């Protein structure tokens, strides 16, 4: 009995010593600052922060859990917008608000976690370093903690910094796809032959062999594009701004064949396990291309392809496959808007 009394007294003294050390040596809240730069224009970056529907698509705090459920409240953008979230798997919930906005300059968020009445306040400041580069500064004010919980302040900054690192990687992927799409749309000059270098791409898609009878090929492409799009957005949970334009890869001159084989895929930023055997990843290597933009019936693309092949032969260049990038998603009974790229080499 005496032994247990001694143990109890020891535990009480230990808790007292811990509480005293927390009280005198650890602040009840913590302030810290983190800076990052991204290679995208200020206006495009700011829109990813002041629109909470955009924000939750790339911020690791929300994307790291597949079980999180988020509700958005009007206004969905800017000062006064808010969300609430519940994550049953990780047993967490909370609310987030934008309390202040100065367009393209600053935002102030309040985050209430797990019914804590004291919020985490995050001020984010934006500054254009150049037309294509933006500096982002986070100033974080953590909520006041009770004496017994103050030990959490030892790892709060590291945890927040890790979250920002992962979030920035996600943001670069989102903005990269947005900027690539915008640039491609702005660069369109229909029916003009150009020379371009294309970087490596990672595509998730399917291999197909189908009839090349009138309209049958295009109907098959539309059907398979819908399969890939639905799998990417519904099964994998990807948003439209997380992947690029669909690309069809096939032999340059197989438009003359009775049966056509092709690979149709959507560009993604990284490879991961795919549970459906119908889909696979394919790496599109860097190439030099002869390029033409074309708009019209799918059948009418053949004339543009012939022009690219004739140019390659005239320049005594060898060629491989042709890539058909759909600037607008392929749809039944509608004209196509596409970029035709013939891979050429000496």
Task: Tell me what the structure shows.
The protein has 346 residues and is of the alpha+beta class. The protein has helices at residues 2-25, 42-50, 52-58, 60-63, 153-186, 216-235, 301-314, and strands spanning 31-38, 69-73, 82-87, 92-102, 106-113, 120-130, 133-141, 194-198, 201-211, 247-251, 259-268, 280-284, 287-296, 318-326, 336-345. The strands form 2 sheets. Strands 8-13-15-14-10-11-9-12 form an 8-stranded antiparallel β-sheet, with helices on one face. A 7-stranded antiparallel β-sheet has the order 1-7-6-5-4-3-2, with helices on one face. It is elongated and about 80 Å long.
Fraction in helix: 25-40%
Distance between the termini: 91 Å
Number of strands: 15
Largest sheet: 8 strands, antiparallel
| Strand proportion | 35-45%
Low-confidence sequence ranges: 12-26
Provide the structure class: alpha+beta
- Order of strands in the sheet with most strands: 8-13-15-14-10-11-9-12
For the CA atoms, what is the radius of gyration? Answer: 27 Å
User: What value does the average pLDDT take?
Assistant: 83
| SSE string | HEHHHEEEEEEHEEHEEEEHEE
């Amino acid at each position: 009995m005496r032994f247990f009394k001694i143990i109890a007294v020891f535990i009480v003294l230990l808790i007292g010593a811990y509480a005293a050390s927390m009280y005198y040596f650890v602040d009840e809240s913590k302030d810290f600052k983190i800076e990052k730069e991204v290679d995208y224009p200020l206006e495009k970056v700011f829109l990813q922060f002041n629109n909470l529907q955009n924000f939750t698509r790339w911020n690791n705090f929300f994307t790291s859990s597949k079980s999180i459920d988020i509700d958005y409240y009007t206004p969905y953008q800017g000062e006064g917008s808010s969300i609430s979230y519940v994550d049953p798997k990780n047993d967490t919930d909370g609310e987030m608000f934008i309390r202040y906005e100065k367009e393209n300059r600053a935002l102030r968020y309040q985050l209430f976690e797990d019914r804590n009445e004291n919020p985490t306040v995050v001020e984010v400041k934006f500054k254009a370093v150049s037309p294509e580069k933006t500096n982002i500064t986070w100033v974080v004010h953590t909520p006041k903690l009770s004496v017994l919980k103050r030990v959490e302040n030892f790892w709060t900054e590291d945890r927040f910094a890790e979250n920002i690192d992962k979030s920035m990687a996600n943001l670069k992927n989102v903005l990269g796809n947005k900027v690539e799409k915008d640039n491609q749309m702005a660069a369109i000059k229909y029916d003009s032959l150009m020379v371009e270098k294309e970087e490596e791409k990672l595509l998730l898609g399917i291999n197909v062999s189908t009839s090349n009878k009138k309209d049958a090929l295009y109907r098959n492409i539309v059907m398979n594009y819908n399969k890939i799009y639905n799998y990417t957005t519904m099964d994998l949970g990807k948003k439209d701004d997380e992947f690029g334009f669909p690309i069809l890869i096939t032999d340059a001159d197989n438009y003359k064949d009775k049966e056509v084989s092709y690979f149709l895929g959507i560009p993604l930023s990284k490879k991961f396990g795919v549970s459906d055997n119908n889909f696979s990843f394919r790496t599109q290597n860097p190439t030099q291309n002869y390029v033409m933009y074309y708009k019209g019936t799918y059948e009418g693309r053949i004339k543009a392809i012939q022009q690219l092949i004739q140019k390659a032969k005239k320049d005594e260049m060898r060629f491989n496959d042709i890539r058909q990038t759909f600037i607008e998603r392929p749809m039944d009974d509608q004209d196509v808007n596409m970029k035709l790229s013939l891979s050429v080499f000496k």
